[in-house]
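Hi,

Apologies if this is the wrong queue. I'm a grad student, and the batch job for DNA primase from Puccinia graminis f. sp. tritici produced an output file that my downstream script rejects. I'm not sure whether the problem is my script or the file. Here is the sequence I used:
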Amino acid sequence: MSEPMQEEPIENCETESPALDPPNEAPNDNPEEVQNKETADDGALGDGLKDIPLDKLFDDEMDVDDAGPLGPEEYRHLAQYDDPWSDLKDPHVMMNFYRRIFPWKQLFLWLNQDHVPNYLFTHREFAITLQNDAYLRYNSYANYVDLQKDIIRLNPTRFEIGPAYSAPPKDRKTLPKASFKPILRELVFDIDLTDYDDIRRCCSDKKICIKCWKFISLAIQVLDFTLRQDFGYKHLLWVYSGRRGAHCWVSDEEAMRLTDEQRKAIVSYINIMKGGGSKFGLKVDLKSPLHPMVERSLMELTNSFLPVVLRDQEVFKEEDKWKFLLRIWSDTDLTKKFEQAWLSDPEITSEEKWKAVLNYYKPSEKEKTPNHSQKKLTALRDVINNVILHYTYPRIDLEVSKHLNHLLKSPFCVHPATGKVCVPLDPKNLDTFDPDKVPDVRDLLRELDKHPSSTLPTPANPSASVEPPVALNWHHTSLRPYVEFFQEHVNGLLKDRLQNKKDLQTDSLEF
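Support response: The file is valid. Your script probably expects a header line. Output copied below for reference.
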């Protein structure tokens, strides 16, 4: 989709397609662990790190815990309760999650796409929502340790990630307004069950269950395949939103470069939903022949229509819903045939009603031969296709994907209303995902406290200034498989970035 990225740093903020590679200068205020590493000119991982296996880059033994020990006030708070983590609104809950569990290094490597800080991270905007709902925008950090310290200090309910700008966002007020603009950002998608409220019968509003989650699973399957197959993207990270939906982050080099217009074009290619719906109420109104992408998706979604839509959701069970089904066909004879029968027997299932309509339109032997019959069959097939797509095709938040500067909640944040962690999703194993079983921040802290190596010791004098050490992290909690899956994703991203650098160097030598 674009030319290989250049190695030179940005010198002019008006550059149309800046390189992903970091500038040659290293920040002067980096902590010692960062300052001791080689600069980005020594390779994607630096000479001092290039021989280390990728999985070792995540080894916590390489880290220095800069968060500091728990303070006396925090310790006294924990010591006075049998269960100090029961109240999600207690600020100590999030404080300890950020200190003891959140995978800061993995998040940094994912955003930075390199082990040495570059402007994919240092110029990145972080927007922070405080406990009092104050919203702090345009925060930026020289390295992940500074980010970790600031989040612990501010103790927000959540934080969001934006684009990488032409300069560190925290310095924007010192720059001419025209010179500060977003330049690189993942292509993102947002799917929320709120957009399915008109078709899900099991739950409504903020509620969710394993049945209606299947709508999200279908959407992920379609989007994931389309983005990989039709656009060639490889590095897609799917993340549970913490309550009713899922987010997708596409970190491929080409995706990072996309302009707003290019992002809008991708959204237009994928989206087939009409905002106001057709005159019969369907959000899909397509005619044959279908676009190959839609036809391919329809083949997969048709297999799920019966078990997910008709059986699990019973979408035509209530009177207003089956009347909607009859109205779609705009056929008074059809309505007359079934309306009275369905009114008199409310136990007729959605599956039975759907099959009855299909059988009604099944052509007789006489109708199979005339030419005009083929046109009728095509029209009927279009209605059937539109019904299936209306109930199963992805319903994405269009505005989220269209703009380079859109903010999206960070992976591994905690949903402030549910306590659920925004964990990565494996699109290959969506059948095993249950939103009710996603780790809760309160349970994670309880798990950590029960682990022998992470139990906080009781001080001889609670008022003493001696502070107990910070307990260990996500390794000893049920969050571990999700972080390890995230690590695997980042490994692949780092590996490809390193290979791209080698290819550019080889091409340069050959030239």
